[in-house]
Amino acid sequence: MRDFSGVRRIVIKAGTNILSSPSGVDSDRIEAIVSEIAKLRDMGKQVLLVSSGAVGLGAKALGHTNPVVYIAMRQACAAIGQPVLMSAYREAFSRHGLLCAQVLITRTVLNNRVSYNNLRQSVSMLLAMGVIPIFNENDVVSAAEVGTNFGDNDRLSAMVASKIDADLLVLLTDIDGIYTGNPKTDKDARLLPEIEEITPEIFSYAKGAGSRFSTGGMKTKLLAIASGYEKDVLVRIADGEEVGTYIHPEKRITQRERWILNTSYTGVIRVDDGAKKALLGHKSLLPSGITEVKGVFLAGEVVAVMDSAGSVFAKAVPYFDSTEIEKLQGHKSSEIGSLIGEGRKDVIFRPEDLVFTENE
Length: 360
Known about the structure:
five-stranded mixed β-sheet; 14 helices; 360 residues; 15 strands
């Protein structure tokens, strides 16, 4: 048995493939998921739901049978399908005496520290009142071509789970876990009940679903992948039953570190070899170690830190904006006051403002 006794806050992701039917919403499947969420609540768990389906439901309502490719059509389908989806959830939760709330977000909301903190406060209040937050990407305003979207709800669920400090992320899919091959076409494919470490081999098994593992810092959390069609699968997972695939956590990082790691950077600071060595040794970045500044960013925004070879090896939150750092690069800390004014920090950023990345 797996020990999930310490799990208090759970994020559940339900995909389009298990929520929709040829005619629209699969009400029976939604009722089954909601019923299990109610049972988790009775077990003392806080539950947040990330739900796909709005675009697909909107397309069906329009009679649109082809894949939704164009951004404007995707936005229109989302606008039509979102209230249909939420109506189905509202009715299902009401039968269990529960309230649900719609939370539509974009990557921009999570990237901005102020809006991110506001979101955390709102979600915390909803949970404290016993309400089930239902997250979805705000496809009506997200635009893939400008990088404001998450790309898929596996990625969104990982981001949500990371940023609201969930203890467990459960991905409900149409298969019962991660296999060594495609179980539909490979008779020798084996289910992997436990994954100790995410390796290139594991990524090859997952094919295009790499975001399920690495996005959102969820390598530092608990992650379970299971079939959304199995009876009582959520309760069984919470009880520690060995169902689906369980991905073990690595080292835990702080909430601020996760925010830095999972926020899209707005610019780049390039440093020399000496500065990189100092940063790897948990030292602050001094202006003398900076060789180049790329992009336009404000103080307090997340930037990438690049080495002399052009590889990004960290993300950081500097105390200065891009214009100020350009003026400071190559200078000594003692010159900061004369260059941009007195009363400023004597370093670009400190070790607590830095998170090292893996193959950004």
